[in-house]
Amino acid sequence: MPSAPAFWRERGARAWLLFPVSLLFGLLAGLRRGFYRIGLLRAVRLPVPVIVVGNIAVGGSGKTPTVDWLVARLKASGWQPGVVSRGHGGTVDEFASVPADGDPAVFGDEPVLLARLTGCPVFVGRDRPRVARALLDRHPECDVIVSDDGMQHYRLARDVEVAVVDPATLGNRWLLPAGPLREPVSRLKAVDVVLLHGDARSARGAVWPAPTFAMHLSGSLFRRLATPADRCDAAAFVGRRVHAIAGIGRPERFFDQLMAMGLDVVPHPFPDHHRFTAADLDFAPGEPKLMTSKDAVKCAPFAPADTWEFPVQAEIGSGAAERILEKLNNGRPPA
Q1: pLDDT the model gives residue 209
Q2: Is residue 305 a contact partner of residue 282, using CB atoms and an 8 Å limit?
Q3: What is the predicted pLDDT for the residue at 334?
Q4: Shared domain check, 169 and 118
Q5: Exposure string (b/e) for 103-122, b if CB count within 10 Å is 16 or more?
Q6: Is residue 335 part of a domain?
Q7: If you average pLDDT over residues 166-192, what whole number do you get?
Q8: Shared domain check, 92 and 162
């Protein structure tokens, strides 16, 4: 996925030129959602509840760490979750089970990372209902499905919707292609939980519906790709120039996080889901290279010796998990 175009940030001439197309996009998207709501298009209901984690904007908002967080909370409450995903960046068209040591070029970088992080069944494919049914057939012990980046996949009926919103990704708040939005901000009024990743003040004029919970990504240790048992904190890199590599939706978030640790960072942004090769990392020998977990799963086979992964976890405000579990339990507070 290419980087977001600069004109999405403001309502300038190019955005205005595309605005009529965005009106048509919004009309078609609204009609499609409405047809599912009134039954003209039929959503597939699974025999187990479905939790959708998604966003209304193009670009990274922190959905993958959120799914990891959610799976952990579900397990702690006695549920046995499975995860379905499209598998962006992979080659699976129908459906496939994702092994923890799977090839990101086949299954997609995020599903492979989720399989490693969560330890639960992860299936990928284009048709979400078909993928979810395949997962349940193979893993009948699963009693809840988490659909990663599935908010706009209305053919899969859902019981809980969790929207992960980074206000910085809302840009000019216009729909595609004049802006970065897949659906209007008003769509958030219909979700069950909004996880606000970032500074709410940067979303001009946005009114966040309740319940809304703060979210941020935290991490403290770096892990060497070649020998994962070898770990260190940021102090090991202070006083040295480091190269930060990120092929994610918002690479600047990763760069800013490293600079906030006091590191001398040379940023190397790549497009989201970039297929890294050894040539991409063939620079600045002897200087450390730091990258996200999403990129590390792709680069581990050929990364130089002094390449380090920075794992992060989603830290989400108190009450969010309880709200999701209550909704999952049909309004009954979690035990």
Answers
A1: 65
A2: no
A3: 59
A4: yes
A5: ebebbbbbbbbbbbbbebbb
A6: no
A7: 94
A8: yes
Q: Is residue 333 predicted with pLDDT exceeding 70? A: no
**Count of structural domains, the chain:** 2
The side-by-side arrangement of strands in the sheet containing 221-224 is: 231-233, 221-224, 307-310, 289-292, 241-246, 264-269
Q: Which domain holds residue 266?
A: 220-311
Residues 210 and 108 in one domain: yes
For residue 102, pLDDT over 70 is answered with yes
Where do the DSSP E strands lie in 62-192? 81-85, 96-97, 122-124, 144-148, 160-165
Residue 1 lies in a domain: no
CATH number at residue 151: 3.40.50.300
**Residue 150 vs residues 31, 157, 187, 275, 305: alpha-carbon distances, Å:** 18, 10, 14, 23, 37
Q: What whole-number percentage of the chain has pLDDT above 70?
A: 94
CA–centroid distance for 172 within its chain: 21
**Which residue type, as a one-letter code, is found at position 288?**
P
Q: Examine the domain organization and report whether 283 and 261 are in the same domain.
A: yes
- Using one digit for the tens of pLDDT, what is the confidence trace for 189-221? 999 999 999 765 554 445 566 589 999 999 999
My answer on whether 259 and 207 are in the same domain is no
Backbone phi, then psi, for 49, in 5-degree steps?
-65, 155
241: Cβ contacts below 8 Å, ≥ 6 apart: 264, 266, 284, 287
Instruction: Find out whether 53 and 114 touch, Cβ atoms under 8 Å.
Output: no
pLDDT, tens digit (0-9, with 9 covering 90-100), for 110-150: 999 999 999 999 999 999 999 999 999 999 999 999 999 99
Helices (H) and strands (E) in the chain, counts: 8, 15
